[in-house]
Amino acid sequence: MIKLKQKIDRPTKEEIAAISRFSPATLHEAQGRRGALSSRLKPIDYRMKLCGPAFTVKCAPRDNIMLQVAINYAQPGDIIVVSAGEYEEAGSFGDVLANACLAKGIGGLVTDTGVRDSLQLRELCFPVFSLSVCIKGTVKETLGATNDPVMVGDEIIYPGDIIVGDADGLVVVRKSEAREVAKLAQAREDAEAGYIAAYKSGKTVVEVSNLEGVLRAKGLVVED
Description:
Elements: H1 13-20, H2 24-30, E1 42-43, E2 50-58, H3 65-73, E3 79-83, H4 95-104, E4 108-115, H5 118-124, E5 128-133, E6 150-152, E7 155-157, E8 162-166, E9 169-173, H6 178-200, H7 205-208, H8 212-217
Parallel strand pairs: 2-3, 3-4, 4-5
Antiparallel strand pairs: 1-5, 2-8, 6-7, 8-9
Binding site for substrate: 94-97, 116
Binding site for Mg(2+): 117
Cofactor: Mg(2+)
């Protein structure tokens, strides 16, 4: 027997809003270069972005019955995160299910399998990050767990973790760390703004990054 888990300890709206201000790359760096999902997972359209709590679901390869269950029970703003065995040769999600997600206010989909109807998904502007685009159909046979920890993109995703995605990729921020990560991300952005201002004032990259001593210690000799 497989029991459907609906309850998630979700982050607050304030925590999600604070994290949503930053790119996945900034968040990855700010939390000690942790949390980046595999670069193989890409958005269907480079303009797509998502940020919200993970509603996790385990699917069998080439089977989307549990994905449909997840769509049925996910709440507005949730990001459905599908673990399906990193199987590229299946189109487990398309424009019909995207319309179902939009009707419910679901925030996006992250899946380690394939999707299809990519043109329609772009037109719908529903954020989809997937391992592949594939036209091959799926069955509806095998039950799986919802809202258990899953491995997706080489990262363990817990229900309620904050998933953030943009054109560059995806990152996961633990719910318990959201406030601290937001502070660290802001500090990083402030520092980078200072670097850019210094460049515009005429300083070099080596000067701004204090690299002269480091390069000399490593044996770099600058010839005239």
